[in-house]
Amino acid sequence: MFRRRQLPPSARQVVPLIGTERLLASAETADGGWVVATTADLVLLSGDDDAPRVATRRPWCDVDRAAFDPERSVLTVEWVDAAPDLRPMLSDAAGTNLPAVVRERVLWSVVLAETVDVPGGTVRVAVRRRLDGTLFSQAVAGDGVDLARADVANVVDATESRVRAACGLPG
């Protein structure tokens, strides 16, 4: 019988939980690191079990989109600020619920989203949720979109006002 590898205590210690934050899932990566999902953040640990360190720790509302490729065991995370994608290969994808937890947390953080066509491409405007329940709006431009252009800004501003109002936020 196979046993699921648990997050080692040394790795658990470098992922402090704050307030009501809880550890939800973890998975070892093919290179010996770990991906950890908490109620607040997605965390990538590098190094080995004896000396793990936080390589990336970001809140769920920073995740633009995430996908899991079960054939390659690769979790892909794209960020709202266009930081380099995170693409860890999980060493035992069948032995973890991490991909499902990542999906659930990203969906939980999105309250309402609308994609609009603008000159140069599309912009996704969303109202997102932080762990403490506060709501905020966010606009993520597609490739080739210049948010500083007046015609683009006008469409984004109108869309943002509409989605904020739909969620009870001031425009």
What does this structure look like?
The protein is an alpha+beta fold and 171 residues long. Helices cover 20% and strands 36% of the residues. It has three helices and nine strands; from the N terminus they run αββββββαβββα. It has helices at 9-13, 98-109, 150-166, and strands at residues 23-28, 34-38, 41-46, 53-59, 63-69, 74-79, 110-118, 121-129, 135-141. It has a four-stranded antiparallel beta sheet with strand order 1-2-3-4, with helices on one face. Strands 7-8-9 form a three-stranded antiparallel beta sheet. Strands 5-6 form a two-stranded antiparallel ribbon. Strand 8 and strand 9 (135-141) form a beta hairpin. The longest helix has 17 residues, at 150-166. The chain is elongated and about 55 Å long. The termini are far apart. 23% of the residues are buried.
Record field, number of beta strands = 9
Helix content bin = 10-25%
Distance between the ends? 57 Å
Tally of DSSP helical segments: 3
Low-confidence stretches: none
How do the strands of the widest beta sheet line up side by side? 1-2-3-4
In oligomeric terms, what are we looking at? single chain
Q: What integer value in Å does the Rg equal?
A: 18 Å
The structural class is: alpha+beta
Average pLDDT reading = 93
What percent of residues are in strands?
Answer: 35-45%
Main sheet summary = 4 strands, antiparallel
Q: What does the overall shape look like?
A: elongated
| Succession of helices and strands | HEEEEEEHEEEH
